[in-house]
Write a structure and sequence with these properties.
The chain is of the alpha+beta class. The chain is 46% helix and 12% strand. The chain has eleven helices and nine strands.
């Protein structure tokens, strides 16, 4: 049956044969003679029919499971957006404000006058990011940027890909600067919020180490008695989805240093910021667990498919019938 052969070409045995004879793993070198010499297990025709029917049924269920798993990330993203919306509208900490009405903390910076995109609690203000700390671009003044003498020393050099991969606090990096590299750059302190403005736009991470970074990354150093950098990092996750709602009307729909300085931020007192950060971190940990389970489920389905195919081509998937004509008889008759 053609479908018998089609299923066999999905099995691990077939892939191992191809890799063994195709001069490495380049499928372009798999020749017609190699295909003709393929060792192919042949069951009796009626048993092939039973096996293929069973495989159709099982793989249909497997594919349905994949479709369900593929839908979950969309639900996860909706949940993530809902968490951020609850947090930055003050709903996540409504009970906390009722329990601790006097925890106002230090007076917040002067508010900015504009039409906010949504309402916030009366104890919050809308202010600009530039009023909550200092923003500056990273430095990489030497040209060419890839000069060998700049690299290979003891100073971490963080790039946009490292920021994207960090998922919160950054400790891992792929490159280092030498003394010459440091001399034409700057070493940023721990707790600096890094915001990418090129390549991966508006990705964020907080330095868990001292590090240098290029001018494709902006560093935000929070005024610690006004602002929690993790609060700002979570807010930028919201702002980058619709930057126009938070930026001045004249700003382009991208992120650069001036856009970040004038970015409007819904700002509660510091103690409430910390409560929001705890609440969001708990929610994001749940999201990460779900994401890990999705990956695990996809990997298990792939293993299940291969285990099913292995059983099929070992004759273990369906009962055998002694009344089936042996495959060798069918092959002998076909060769006459």
């Amino acid at each position: 049956m053609p479908r018998w052969i089609a299923y066999f070409t999905r099995a691990g045995e077939y892939r191992r044969y191809v890799e063994a004879v195709a001069l490495g793993i380049n499928i372009n070198n798999f020749r017609t003679s190699d295909l003709e010499a393929l060792p192919l297990p042949i069951a009796p025709q009626t048993e092939q029919l039973r096996i293929v029917s069973k495989l159709d049924h099982l793989f249909n269920r497997s594919n349905n499971s994949r479709e369900e798993l593929a839908h979950i990330p969309h639900l996860v993203e909706r949940y993530r957006a809902a968490l951020l919306a609850e947090a930055f509208r003050g709903k996540a900490t409504a009970d906390w404000r009722e329990r601790y009405p006097d925890r106002g903390g230090k007076a917040l910076p002067n508010k900015v006058e504009f039409e906010p995109p949504y309402e916030t609690p009366s104890s919050w203000i809308w202010t600009s990011l530039g009023q909550l700390g200092v923003l500056d671009r990273g430095r990489s003044r030497h040209r060419p940027r890839n000069a060998p003498e700049l690299y290979g020393g003891p100073y971490p050099f963080v790039q946009t890909g490292d920021i994207k991969a960090a998922r919160g606090r950054l400790f891992q990096f792929g490159q280092t600067y030498s003394e010459a590299g440091l001399a034409q750059s700057r070493l940023w302190p721990r707790e600096t919020l890094c915001i990418t403005i090129a390549a991966n736009i508006a990705e964020t991470a907080i330095l868990g180490i001292e590090a240098c970074f290029p001018d494709s990354i902006v560093g935000f150093t929070a005024t610690t008695d006004l602002c929690d950098p993790r609060f700002i990092e979570f807010f930028i996750m919201t702002a980058k989805a619709d930057l126009a709602a938070f930026a001045p009307a004249t700003a382009q729909k991208n992120i650069n240093l001036e856009t970040l300085r004038t970015l409007r931020v819904p700002c509660p007192p510091l103690e409430e910021q910390k409560q929001i950060v705890k609440w969001l971190e708990k929610g994001f940990r749940c999201i990460q667990r779900v994401t890990n389970e999705i990956s695990r489920g996809v990997a298990l389905l792939a293993r299940l498919d291969q285990a099913t195919l292995s059983k099929a081509f070992r004759g273990e998937l369906v009962p055998q019938d002694p009344n089936d004509e042996p495959a060798r008889h069918s092959l002998a008759r076909g060769s006459v």
